[in-house]
Amino acid sequence: MIYHLKNQLKIQRSFSVGLFFCFLLMCSIGKTYQSESDFSGQASWIEYKAYMAVEKERHRDVGLSYLISGSIATVGGLIAYEAASDSLSRVLYAVTANVGIAAIGLGATYYWTSSEEEIFYDTLEGSSLNLQQKNELLARYLQKQRQQRDSRRWIQVATHALIAAANFYSAAQEENADVRSIFYFLGGANTALAISYSF
Q1: Which residues, at least 6 apart from 180, have a Cβ–Cβ distance to it below 8 Å?
Q2: pLDDT tens-place string over residues 144-159
Q3: Calpha distance 22→97 (Å, rounded)
């Protein structure tokens, strides 16, 4: 009986740690999509040019960080999957490895491709437009970019709020306590994501 309880506690502890790790990785991926660049200065091409030099470096750094963290999550998830004895832990570690692979793909995208803003900047920088024309085009671009960012943000809030509601509903209907706690965790995680996107 005591051995069974210790084993059960060990499983629950490893499961909780794994869920927490998945939550952190998913939140950071979500925040990456949210943390698009935000040039808040005047529509001055000279200021924007200096800003973009920093932004291009940040873009590569974000990509590198996802490549590293995704690799760690993938390898850790695969090793833990092989070491786990119960099916619930194995599922969790498989999910961790999958989230890690998604992070690697996201990191590769950031590291080896340009953002839309970088493409816009490179196109304008290489054009024959004069400084006044670049400033005018930049002003229109920044206005449109801010409108799109606000729309995306509220869509993300609504999406995560609906996922949270679905998970809380599933938790209320579920009879198995272990599965119910997973639904509550997912509901809480998505509630936190919805709140974070609303700011």
Answers
A1: 171, 174
A2: 988 998 999 999 999 9
A3: 9
